[in-house]
Amino acid sequence: MKDLGWAWVVAKTAVESQGYTAALRIESWARALEDSKQGLTDALFLAFWTEERLQWYEYTVPIAQIESGLFKLKERKDLAFNGDLKALKPYEIGVCRGCAIADEFDEVDYLNKVTQKNTENGLKMLFVKRLDFVAANRPTAEILLNKLEPAYKGISQKIIFIKPALQVNDLLVGISKKAPDYKKKLRDFNRGMKQLFLDGTYHKIQKQYGFKQ
């Protein structure tokens, strides 16, 4: 993974084009939520839209669209998913504390969702066969699988994303309503993103990270 990932390079470039200095604080998702809600950080990076979060954030224009769904061990031929959530009732599904995955999936209460402190921990549990599935957004999980490879040999090949996706989500930045001048920061971020699209920088960054145009 180059730098801190292509999405961060996009966001950082958009922000800095408007005269700001950008820094990314790496925290657990639960901590990132709490810090940004309280205004200890200006924004929540790589958030999905949820109605509940509107009380704390104003959302930027999307950075991208990404799939959220289920990961499983490739060797588990007995596990399949056809889009029917009720078919998942017998299985243990790892979910990151505080993470939004997909509207229907998040709302139903009949699934055996096993809360994990973060997605990385869920993938470790899946690898050692203590979970049947992990629910996560695809790009983040795939980055984490590559990160875990040195310590968990073969994990990036043995754990796979399965279709269909639970949902395709806009990838956003939530500007904290407790951040100083948050409305101006929101406008400036959106202006920076528009500039990246217009001058071709957005697609240049994607190309550097292996995206096909």
From TrEMBL:
Signal peptide: none annotated. Keywords: Signal. The keyword Metal-binding does not apply. SUPFAM superfamilies: Periplasmic binding protein-like II (SSF53850). Residues 10-210 form the Solute-binding protein family 3/N-terminal domain. InterPro entries: Solute-binding_3/MltF_N (IPR001638). Belongs to the bacterial solute-binding protein 3 family. PANTHER family: ABC TRANSPORTER SUBSTRATE-BINDING PROTEIN, MEMBRANE-BOUND LYTIC MUREIN TRANSGLYCOSYLASE F. This is Transporter substrate-binding domain-containing protein. It comes from Spartinivicinus marinus.
